[in-house]
Amino acid sequence: MTTAQHTHADQLRPVDPDLFRTLLGRPTGAACVVTAVARGSRPACLGDLGAPLRSGFTATSLTAVSQNPPLVSFQPDPISSGALLLDRAEHVAVHLLGADQIEVAAIFATNGVDPFVAYPRWAAGPFGLPLLTGVLGRLLCRVVRRVPAGGQRVIAEPLALSAGEPLARYSAAVPG
């Protein structure tokens, strides 16, 4: 069962090992935004009972756990508004941000605001995941494990990845 009715499976492509290595071989400390969607139960007074809920948060702890099979790990702030929804999400999108995207990281790091209103440059993608535009790269992942570790560390398997325009400039600047 997926977290949304539309999977857009035709948009999923196999994970290219070289691109995976390039995307996750960036200098440490770079931020990423994780977006998720899960079946919700909004209070009846808000309407849309059972409609999917979306969430997003900034994570600075993205780690490549394994290349074969490709696995990534990240940890949300346990008090972030996105952490609770992430407990129910089956899929996530990990958006790798460029150095010039500090504003995007700040928007998704702010509690108490809807980041999808504050940052309107996104569209629904496979599994109903909110996909941000203009990012360095993106991994569409299936959550495979949640590990309690000072909050909760999520282990996810990338099902597909894509690189944005900035990655070509970044890759050219990094010695092979």
UniProtKB/TrEMBL annotation:
<feature type="domain" description="Flavin reductase like">
    <location>
        <begin position="24"/>
        <end position="176"/>
    </location>
</feature>
<dbReference type="InterPro" id="IPR050268">
    <property type="entry name" value="NADH-dep_flavin_reductase"/>
</dbReference>
<dbReference type="Pfam" id="PF01613">
    <property type="entry name" value="Flavin_Reduct"/>
</dbReference>
<dbReference type="InterPro" id="IPR002563">
    <property type="entry name" value="Flavin_Rdtase-like_dom"/>
</dbReference>
<protein>
    <submittedName>
        <fullName>Flavin reductase</fullName>
    </submittedName>
</protein>
<dbReference type="GO" id="GO:0042602">
    <property type="term" value="F:riboflavin reductase (NADPH) activity"/>
</dbReference>
<dbReference type="GO" id="GO:0010181">
    <property type="term" value="F:FMN binding"/>
</dbReference>
<dbReference type="GO" id="GO:0006208">
    <property type="term" value="P:pyrimidine nucleobase catabolic process"/>
</dbReference>
<dbReference type="InterPro" id="IPR012349">
    <property type="entry name" value="Split_barrel_FMN-bd"/>
</dbReference>
<keyword id="KW-0560">Oxidoreductase</keyword>
